[in-house]
């Protein structure tokens, strides 16, 4: 028993949970089932639900007469608008082969730049039958080699997970298996199988990313036991990107306005907030940008917000400088065009963002390098809105739910009358009704035409390393979300360790300070 910050902590083995208590949080399975049910309404049924809701509203207690007295006339029919579908971007896989896209999806024959996995350790966090492990390794290695990765058999070991001894365990592995100075003698990957809980995952990532600079991959028990090609390929997408490989790249030879993509930095910015019950945890700002001209390799900068659930980012200048230095180090040049996508901002915050964040960015760019001129385009990305688009003719829909096709753009009729904004559905809806992303341009020093910014945004949605399909928001924005969420895991793991050691040093900045060997990697992938 110990006292920590006026709270008494007991060893878990002495605690009994009283029955019949109210469950205040959903389990992971309950969350998944709820989301699956809510998201599985097809477009036609959703439209019928909206019509029925409007009719019920009008018919309640003679509402129609009240509405007419105030000059309102609500139609129960949706409006018909104009839309167009952008061409799919031209992508390349291994051996410079063009990729054939079908409704935003494709199949790899080979990664564009596969990485050989020669020195890695498979760590079992629980007991598995030998046959299960052999099948897992065979499927993993075979699919990796089909994608161009040369994968040797791993070193195998067991570890009885304990958050109090995890750091010592990883330190010993690093000392034992990364003793040489050459790249071939460095440990490339720690692969943990049977990582079933969030706190295990958080602790492993914190120790690997922050403390020791080790690339880690975790997989649950169920995925080990039911390993198949799909699961293996999904894991290999992540690992190849983490190790410095490139899964897919742009075909500059067939890219419209190809010169406009060169010397361009695409930045994604997001802020992750703690839940209302986590009042002792800070908000986390993340900024991610490409460090190559093919928008395949990215670096990140993460900062802690000073105030609880604060959306406006104070240290954007420091984060931007981190990214510019990384870009220059990798390409030996500075970008001329900066296209920044800002997530998580509501329309009511546009003016504050303009007055604080955009002005700070402009000041930083102006003083960064004497004689070098940057041109900034600042775009707000919004997913939380109520606009949905359904094909007027179901034959024009794609997938089993007949959603609008990937690349659908709406920039008339339902957009702002004065500000330039548009809706882009860059992905194919897997289930339910596709939700397009809403883009609002606040600054455009690059003087991009509507076609240019829409096509550029659509291209960025096809370069996400973790899957072979287009996604709903630009890749750097999604990576910023992942980087912020990973930093949150680092903090949660660090605070858990502090409670065990009975210290009270809440230096959150140190908890998210990446190991030097990881700063230029896509550890968040």
From TrEMBL:
Name of the protein described by the UniProt record: Argonaute 2
One Gene Ontology MF term: nucleic acid binding
Annotated InterPro entries: ArgoL2 (IPR032472), Piwi (IPR003165), Piwi_ago-like (IPR045246), RNaseH-like_sf (IPR012337), RNaseH_sf (IPR036397)
Domain Piwi: 188-492
Pfam families: ArgoL2 (PF16488), Piwi (PF02171)
Annotated organism of origin: Dermatophagoides farinae
Superkingdom field: Eukaryota
Annotated SMART domains: Piwi
């Amino acid at each position: 028993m110990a006292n920590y910050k006026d709270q008494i902590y007991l060893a878990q083995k002495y605690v009994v949970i009283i029955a019949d208590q109210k469950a205040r949080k959903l389990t992971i399975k309950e969350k998944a089932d709820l989301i699956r049910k809510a998201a599985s309404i097809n477009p036609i049924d959703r439209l019928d639900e909206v019509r029925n809701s409007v009719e019920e509203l009008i018919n309640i207690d003679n509402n129609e007469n009240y509405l007419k007295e105030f000059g309102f006339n609500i139609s129960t029919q949706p409006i018909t608008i104009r839309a167009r579908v952008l061409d799919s971007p031209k992508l390349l896989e291994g051996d410079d082969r063009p990729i054939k896209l079908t409704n935003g999806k494709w199949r790899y024959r080979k990664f564009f730049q596969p990485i050989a996995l020669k020195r890695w350790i498979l760590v079992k966090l629980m007991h598995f039958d030998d046959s299960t492990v052999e099948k897992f390794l065979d499927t993993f290695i075979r699919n990796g080699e089909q994608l161009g990765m040369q994968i040797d058999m791993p070193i195998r070991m067991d570890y009885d997970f304990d958050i109090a001894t995890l750091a010592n365990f990883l330190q010993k592995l690093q000392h034992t298996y990364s003793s040489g100075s050459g790249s071939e003698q460095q440990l490339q990957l720690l692969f943990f199988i049977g990582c079933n809980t969030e706190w295990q995952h958080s602790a492993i990532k914190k120790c690997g990313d922050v403390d020791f600079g080790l690339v880690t991959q975790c997989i649950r028990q169920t995925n080990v036991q039911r390993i198949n090609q799909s699961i293996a390929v999904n894991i290999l997408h992540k690992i190849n990107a983490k190790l410095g490989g490139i899964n897919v790249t742009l075909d500059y030879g067939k890219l419209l306005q190809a010169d406009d993509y060169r010397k361009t930095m695409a930045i994604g910015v997001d802020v992750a907030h703690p839940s209302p019950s986590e009042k002792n945890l800070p908000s986390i700002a993340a900024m991610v940008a490409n460090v190559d001209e093919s928008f395949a390799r990215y670096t990140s900068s993460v900062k802690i917000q000073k105030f609880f659930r604060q959306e406006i980012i104070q240290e954007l200048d420091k984060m931007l400088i981190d990214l510019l230095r990384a870009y220059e180090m990798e390409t030996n040049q500075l970008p001329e065009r900066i296209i920044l996508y800002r997530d998580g901002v509501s329309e009511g915050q546009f003016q504050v963002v303009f007055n604080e964040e955009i002005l700070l960015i402009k000041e930083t760019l102006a003083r960064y390098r004497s004689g070098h001129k940057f041109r900034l385009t600042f775009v707000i990305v919004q997913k939380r809105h109520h606009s949905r688009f359904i094909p007027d003719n179901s034959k024009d829909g794609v997938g089993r739910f007949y959603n609008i096709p990937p690349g659908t753009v709406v920039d008339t009729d339902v957009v702002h009358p004065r500000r330039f904004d548009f809706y882009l559905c860059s992905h194919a809806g897997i289930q339910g009704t596709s939700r397009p992303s809403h883009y609002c341009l606040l600054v455009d020093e690059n003087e991009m035409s509507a076609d240019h910014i829409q096509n550029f945004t659509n291209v960025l949605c096809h370069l996400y390393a973790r899957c072979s399909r287009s996604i709903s928001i630009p890749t750097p924005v999604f990576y910023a979300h992942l980087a912020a969420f990973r930093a949150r895991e680092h903090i949660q793991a660090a605070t858990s360790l502090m409670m065990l050691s009975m210290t009270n040093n809440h230096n959150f900045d140190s908890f998210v300070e990446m190991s030097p060997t990881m700063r230029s990697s896509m550890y968040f992938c």
